[in-house]
Amino acid sequence: MRFRRTMEVGAVIFLAFNLVNLWAQAPAEGPTAAAQDLARKAKSRGDYKSAAEGFEKVRKSALASDDKKSAAQAAIDYAQSLERWVNTDPTQQNRLAEAAQSYQSAIQLGDADQQAYARNGLGVVLLRQGKAVESLAAFRGIDMDGIAPTARFAYLYNYGRALERNDELQTAYAQYRRALELQPRFEPAIEGAFRVLRQSPRPNIKEAVGFGQQLVVRGSGAFTARQIHTLLKAWNAAPDASELLTVLVQYYISASVDPVQFQEVELGDLRSLGATTPALRSPIDEILTAYVGNFPPSFHHGPARNIFRSWAYPPEHAALFSALLKSVGAYYDQRETPEKALPRFSAAWMLNPSDSEAAVYAAAIVRDHAKALDPQGQLFNQLLETLFMQKGEAYFENDWPNILRFHVVLGTIFEREKIWGSAQDPRSAIFQWENALEAEKQVRHVDKNFTPSPGIHASLALAYEKTRRTTDAWDQYVLAAQGFIESHNPDPAALALEHAQSLSVEKDEQRLKKLEELRSRIAELKKTAV
């Protein structure tokens, strides 16, 4: 294990060289140039012995001509060749001392950039020699803010390793985090940060969760999940260890980990952990149920909150687990397994009532597979009753954003059912879409920055068209087109305008002028988009 970590540190220093020393690649002149070229070629083909000998000749020649900058670069190249030689031939470990001396020479001879690079190289070599105190002194001599951001992450990581070796764990953690701010997917720094967290006197669950969630958002979910598994084993006795599972769930959602992948990669470790840790057994079992379990659909809150009791509270946990259920439900829906998709969509909505998308998906499955899943229509009626009840509660609390959301969900459901109705029939598309527009006005009255919803106008236009209210339909299609134009969506704007033009309404001068104006604006939008 120790040798593997040493190699990691070495790899970082080589990466840093490639990033920051382009300035040092200018060829020398005369005989020195030929020696430099030969040394670089030897280095590129892996002949580090010949490369080291060549760079040493270049260094001596540069010193003889008092070219300190070239001598410093040759010293760096010489030290780096020795390091790589040791990497490929462990019997050459004694060469590390020569490499350290060469970096020290570069520090004496070089300009500010070369000195910083040489200190970094020296710090790494000293770490490999087990000289942690001397290594830390080398890194502390570097002005980290003066390093180019594209390479600074490597310097900070190396500095963190030296701090960690000197048991300055809090500062080491800070340097690993700084490195990850610059290079969010840099796995050695992720591993280092979690390794330091594991060495905390007391489990710092809150910090680990926040850090892990940030890494998942930045695209390092799979590697972060492995670190979380390690923390779960190390901290399984902590009272709030189950909070770490939220990072895993977030990863499953962000990476769309499907049931097959889950069973291949995660299932075994989680089952083992749940079997040995009573406090984690229920939340883990509920994750397994979400992926591969069988449970009945319901549009009442109680059953979902009982089945997924560990995730039902607090609200942020319920929202997170709801998203997982919806993701897994989508997997089963896409594979034509509605009997598995529906329970997950319904539970997702019941755990997180604000997730109207889950409600719409559930309604679609109930109606598309009514014969098999809901032959008596009980589930569909239960779904509608719950929606109307929640909408009523929103009206009681003057919660206009949620009122708008419920009208949109109900409008979508009735539209799918082709129940167009009227303004007096709550169980109809027209009623729901008209009231959705009124709710949107109320929301925008409070929040001037609220984004308009031209799709509501388009849906209401369709409902009017289906009930032969052609003049009203024309007006709504035009309003939809205007809204889509204002939100810079030319394609749906053009579609709404096309529907308006297809209606049998009198094309008076005002209407023709309006159509021409909108066509022109759509054309301009498409031109600027190109």
Question: Can you walk me through this structure?
Answer:
With 530 residues, the protein is an all-alpha fold. Among the domains are: 166 residues, Alpha Horseshoe (Serine Threonine Protein Phosphatase 5, Tetratricopeptide repeat), CATH 1.25.40.10; 78 residues, no CATH class. The protein is 75% helix and 0% strand. It is built from 28 helices and no strands. The longest helix has 21 residues. The chain is elongated. The N terminus is likely disordered.
Short summary of the structure?
The protein is mainly alpha-helical. Helix content is 75%, strand content 0%. The longest helix has 21 residues, at 68-88.
Write the layout of secondary structure elements.
Layout: H1 2-20, H2 31-44, H3 48-64, H4 68-88, H5 95-109, H6 112-128, H7 132-140, H8 149-165, H9 169-182, H10 187-198, H11 205-217, H12 221-234, H13 245-254, H14 259-265, H15 267-276, H16 278-292, H17 301-307, H18 315-334, H19 338-351, H20 356-368, H21 370-373, H22 378-396, H23 400-416, H24 429-446, H25 454-466, H26 470-486, H27 490-502, H28 509-529
